[in-house]
C-alpha cells in the first residue's frame, strides 16, 4: 500500500496523514519519501494495538454478527449521529468479509516503531481520550519512537476525524503552519 500511495503523492513537499489502519502506511511514506515534510497520525499506531493471540481469531471475524449499534458505539462513542452511523453501515456492508479478515490479520503483524524512529519530519498525533481501539499505550509507543512528536488530545472516540472534523482540521492546520519552528 505504501508504494501505491507514494506513486500518487504530489511531486512537491506534502504532509502525509494516516488514520487508524493507514497510520503505519503513513509512517512508511514519511520514513522513505523525502517529499514528506510532515506526518500526522490520527487515532493510529506504530505497532498493532491488539494482543497477537487474536491473529487466529481473525478467520472467524464477521462484523455482520455484531449489532451495528455496538460497532458504531465502539468507533464513535456518544458522538455517533444517525448520519455517521448510516454512512458507517453503508461502508461496512460494502466490504467483503475476506477484506475485513485480511485487514485484521495484517494489522496484527504491524510494527513500524523502527521506521518511525527514522522519520525526520515533524510528527503530530491526534488522539481521542475515549478511543476504545487505540489507547494511550499506542500513543506512548509513538512518542517513545518519536520524542519530538506533538500529541493533541480530543474529547472524542476512535473516529475523531469524522466526529470532530473542524477541531481536527484546526489542529492539523496549526501543525502545518508551525512545522518549521
How many angstroms does the end-to-end distance come to? 31 Å
CATH fold type of the largest domain: Rossmann fold
**How many runs of DSSP E, i.e. beta strands?**
4
From the alpha carbons, calculate the radius of gyration and give it in angstroms. 16 Å
Task: Output the structural class.
Answer: alpha/beta
Number of domains: 2
* Average predicted confidence as pLDDT: 85
How large a portion of the residues is in β-strands, by DSSP E? 5-15%
Poorly predicted regions are: none
| Strand order in the sheet with the most strands | 1-2-3-4
CATH class category label of the largest domain = Alpha Beta
Q: Any idea what the CATH architecture of the largest domain is? A: 3-Layer(aba) Sandwich
Describe, in short, the structure shown.
The chain has 181 residues and is an alpha/beta fold. The protein has nine helices and four strands, in the order H-E-H-E-H-H-H-H-E-H-E-H-H.
How would you describe this structure to a colleague?
This protein has 181 residues and is α/β, with parallel strands linked by helices. The protein folds into two domains: 2-49 and 113-177, Alpha/Beta hydrolase fold, catalytic domain (Rossmann fold); 52-104, no CATH class. Helix content is 45%, strand content 13%. The protein is built from nine helices and four strands, in the order H-E-H-E-H-H-H-H-E-H-E-H-H. It has helices spanning 2-8, 23-32, 68-76, 82-94, 97-107, 113-117, 136-145, 160-163, 165-177; strands at residues 14-19, 36-42, 123-128, 150-154. The chain has a four-stranded parallel β-sheet, with helices on both faces. The mean pLDDT is 85.
Amino acid at each position: 500500500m505504501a508504494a501505491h500511495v507514494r506513486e500518487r503523492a504530489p511531486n512537491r513537499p506534502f504532509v502525509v496523514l494516516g488514520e487508524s489502519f493507514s497510520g503505519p502506511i503513513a509512517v512508511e511514506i514519511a520514513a522513505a519519501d523525502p517529499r514528506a515534510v510532515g506526518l500526522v497520525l490520527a487515532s493510529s499506531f506504530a505497532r498493532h494495538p491488539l494482543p497477537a493471540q487474536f491473529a487466529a481469531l481473525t478467520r472467524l471475524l464477521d462484523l455482520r454478527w455484531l449489532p451495528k449499534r455496538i460497532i458504531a458505539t465502539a468507533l464513535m462513542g456518544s458522538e455517533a449521529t444517525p448520519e455517521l452511523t448510516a454512512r458507517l453501515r453503508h461502508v461496512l456492508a460494502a466490504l467483503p468479509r475476506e477484506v475485513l479478515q485480511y485487514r485484521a490479520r495484517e494489522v496484527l503483524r504491524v510494527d513500524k516503531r523502527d521506521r518511525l524512529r527514522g522519520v525526520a519530519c515533524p510528527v503530530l498525533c491526534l488522539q481521542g481520550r475515549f478511543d476504545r481501539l487505540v489507547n494511550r499505550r499506542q500513543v506512548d509507543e509513538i512518542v517513545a519512537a518519536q520524542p519530538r512528536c506533538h500529541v493533541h488530545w480530543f474529547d472524542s472516540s476512535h473516529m475523531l476525524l469524522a466526529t470532530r472534523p473542524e477541531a481536527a482540521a484546526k489542529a492539523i492546520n496549526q501543525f502545518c503552519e508551525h512545522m518549521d519552528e
